[in-house]
Design brief:
Elements: H1 12-20, H2 29-48, E1 59-63, E2 69-71, H3 72-85, E3 91-96, E4 103-104, E5 114-122, E6 133-141, H4 151-154, E7 161-169, E8 173-178, E9 183-189, E10 194-199, E11 210-212, H5 223-232, E12 243-244, H6 250-260, E13 262-266, H7 279-292, E14 296-298, E15 318-321, H8 323-333
Parallel strand pairs: 3-5, 11-12, 11-13
Antiparallel strand pairs: 1-2, 3-4, 5-6, 6-7, 7-8, 8-9, 9-10, 13-15, 14-15
Helix pairs in contact: 1-2, 2-3, 5-8
The structure holds 6-O-phosphono-alpha-D-fructofuranose.
6-O-phosphono-alpha-D-fructofuranose is lined by residues 122-123, 125, 214, 248-250, 276.
Length: 338
């Protein structure tokens, strides 16, 4: 593989082609999916960047399948991804946080060998206050025999992902993804409309600086979770206190911890025993990215990517980030609850 530095001018298209050439058997379908994701990201960022100026801010009077009030940008992002991806002949189905059921490929289009699961605009409740939001995506290979995709094609463990990543609409727009050969970050240069390689081969520090958790739920955590958070905060004298950084936007918190090291935690609690985050299109893709960057992700008991999904929108507790910090989480959370 060609080794690039952050100063070489490498577009994402060139990078994808170079990665594809490493696999003689590659059909190019996965590459085409990544091109389409990059296109969708440019279309969404164009709206997000001007959200305050066009009639795209604010909420609709509709709810998504999660019972969350849909933001206009949520719906726009969802429609943009579906329209960018449904006719290319690479996918046999899609699954979105915004849609209750599997999204079939329209009859008039050819089906391909992959499935895309995505959260079109995570953290969208932050849009109106200009806090970074993100798109998260996961690509799986079709496993059923028919032409068209079925639910079984999506309900696969995260270990079977062939690609995953996210776009963060922050101070700049970045696309970060993996196909199982490291994690690579591309920054959108709006003056030419190109994603350029800016963060080749991202590695997460083995022990981190940051702790991202919403401790307003502390009263609802079990004793092991409480003890773990005391450890992370240095209150039991066993380690240096981690700096708490919680944006309330998963992609923003995850991205900062990926680059600077740390842990994002959304524990189970008595109000939501499975936590809040969704396994298929939030936990699994970010777990693949962090694992490829040298980190890890657990639900407290198992590695996130070993969980066998049973429902499209199922949730999972999530502890994700620096390897040693996640090992600490596993140690605390496997104890018998006091
Ligand atoms: P809480 C945003 O709604 C989101 O899904 C993630 O982006 C974010 O990490 C989490 O929820 C925040 O949840 O319960 O802390 O407000």
């Amino acid at each position: 593989m060609v080794k690039h530095t952050a100063t070489s001018v490498v577009t994402i298209d060139r990078f994808i082609i170079e990665q594809e050439r490493m696999h003689p058997a590659a059909t190019g379908q996965l590459s085409d999916i990544l091109y389409d994701v990059a296109l969708a990201a440019k279309l969404i960022t164009n709206k997000v960047r001007r959200a305050g100026l066009v009639d795209i801010l604010g909420a609709l009077d509709s709810e998504n399948v999660q019972g969350e009030i849909q933001q206009k940008l949520d719906v726009f992002a969802n429609e943009t991804i579906v329209k960018a991806m449904d006719h290319g002949g690479r996918l046999c189905a899609m699954a979105s946080e915004e849609e209750p059921e599997l999204i079939p490929i329209p009859e008039q289009f050819r089906c391909g060998n992959y499935v895309l699961a995505f959260d079109p605009l995570d953290g969208s409740s932050n849009i109106d206050v200009n806090v970074p939001v993100g798109t998260i995506f996961s690509v799986l290979r079709k496993i059923t025999r028919g032409v068209r995709g079925e639910l079984e094609d999506v309900l696969q463990p995260g270990r079977r992902q062939v690609a995953a990543g996210y776009i963060i609409y922050g101070s700049s727009t970045m696309l970060v993804y993996t196909t199982g050969h490291g994690v690579h970050g591309f920054t959108l240069d709006p003056s030419i409309g190109e994603f350029l390689l800016s963060h080749p081969d991202i590695r997460i520090p083995t022990r981190g600086r940051y702790l991202s958790v919403n401790d307003s739920y502390e009263q609802h955590w079990d004793e092991n979770v409480k003890a773990l958070m005391r450890r992370y905060r240095g209150l039991d004298g066993q380690q240096k206190a981690m700096s708490v950084r919680y944006v309330g936007s998963l992609v923003a918190d995850f991205h900062r911890n990926l680059l600077g090291g740390g842990v994002f935690a959304y524990p189970s609690n008595t109000q939501s025993p499975n936590g809040k985050l969704r396994l298929l299109y939030e936990c699994n893709p970010l777990a693949f990215v962090v694992q490829q960057a040298g980190g890890s992700a657990t639900n407290g008991v198992q590695d996130i990517m070993d969980l066998a999904p049973t429902e499209l929108h199922q949730r999972s507790p999530l502890y994700i980030g620096s390897k040693d910090d996640i090992e600490t989480a596993r140690e605390f959370l496997s104890r018998k609850v006091a």
